[in-house]
Amino acid sequence: MHHSFLAATNRPVLLPRFVLLAALAAGLLGVPPGCSKDDDEPVMAVPNPEMISVPQAATHPEGIQYDEANKRFIVSSRTKGVLSTVRDDSTFAQLADDPRLISTIGVNLDAGRNRVLVAVSDNGANTTRTTAATLRKRAALAIFNSTSGALLNYVDLGGLRPALNHFANDIAVDKDGNAYVTDSSAPIIYKVDLQGVASVFLENAQFDAGTAFGLNGIVYHPDGYLLVAKANSGTLFKVPIANPGSFTTVAAATGLSLTGADGLLLTDPQTLLLVSGSQRTVYRLSSTDAWATVRSTGTFATGAVSPTTITKRGSDAYVLYPYTATSPRFKIVKAVF
Questions:
Q1: How far is CA 83 from the centre of its chain?
Q2: Does residue 281 form part of some domain?
Q3: pLDDT confidence of 45, banded at 50, 70, 90?
Q4: Which domain holds residue 38?
Q5: Residues whose CB is less than 8 angstroms from the CB of residue 248 and which lie 6 or more positions away in sequence, other chains included
Q6: Are residues 281 and 207 in the same domain?
Q7: So where does this one cross the membrane (predicted)?
Q8: Please, are residues 169 and 184 in contact by the beta-carbon 8 Å criterion?
Q9: Is residue 217 part of a domain?
């Protein structure tokens, strides 16, 4: 029998406020009255919200990762050069900083090793930290404890090729803890091992983009290779870890253009989400031949914003809307295909 809070006369019964709150909490959260909840957990929390609007002015985040253990997002900042956290209620807090972090770009949460890795660059967006010596030259990997934010290592990458311009962009981590970092201004993928030793993993003229943005998003595939996106052409590359020089181009289905390719997210071995900032679209890509070819199986339009990258949260994916360097806020939005 369905019990209503309405009396037979259809006039509302004025129950004590605490009774109503208990009933609402029990009904909405599926928690029987009397079951204890953590005091700091919002009673009316919405699981995996559709959108989180973060009122932090001029943050201009580029990278994002969801930290499942701590129920928070980790975001970077082109304009401030810090790492920060965002919770579902828009609570924003600084996680890590260092004077050498001019602009923080791509972020990778290596949860199993309790560390967060961030690519560091300088294209002039952080006006308080940019210098003539670092502008278009800074490329580094900073590694922090993902719980405390303590700096674990700072690894110079640009010094491996000092004559070139640099923009360290995105990061993938393989099963052994090696990090791979793309450079959007030089035709290079770097490798940084667990000891912090940096090397040029792969350098090839096919990655050159001239003055445009080149290599961008990168992910590690559990079958032992990297998938790497080149922004200006929309090309996807498959790079075997064991033999990077044998890399191949992933053939896109007829009519599929991935220009503006930025962040990548591998949701399962056959499915890749690709964010195209210039197309204002997130593509869901599928491959049934170990990424020799790829086709689109769905899109998510982001509207009048250029999204940057995307992160997995349970079975959902959230895309980052940075807006501009002077915007009063940024948003984290669930991508629905």
A1: 12
A2: yes
A3: low
A4: 1-45
A5: 237, 238, 292
A6: yes
A7: none
A8: yes
A9: yes
Contact (Cβ atoms closer than 8 angstroms) between residue 257 and residue 269: no
**Same domain for 30 and 67?**
no
Residue the block writes with tokens 């029990």: 26
Among 213, 100, 219, residue whose Cα is nearest residue 156: 100
Residue 199 sits in the same domain as residue 230? yes
CA atoms within 13 A on the CB side of 194: 7
Q: How many domains does the chain have?
A: 2
DSSP three-state, residue 141 = strand
**Identity at 119, one-letter amino acid code:** A
Q: Where are the alpha helices (DSSP H) in the chain?
A: 17-29
Check pLDDT > 60 for residue 34: no
pLDDT digits (tens, 9 = 90+) for 174-233: 999 999 999 999 999 999 999 999 999 999 999 999 999 999 999 999 999 999 999 999
| Long-range contacts (CB closer than 8 Å, 24 or more residues apart) made by 159-166 | 160/188, 160/190, 160/198, 160/199, 160/200, 161/186, 161/188, 161/200, 161/203, 162/137, 164/188, 165/136, 165/137, 166/121, 166/136, 166/137, 166/138, 166/139
Same-domain status, 92 and 14 = no
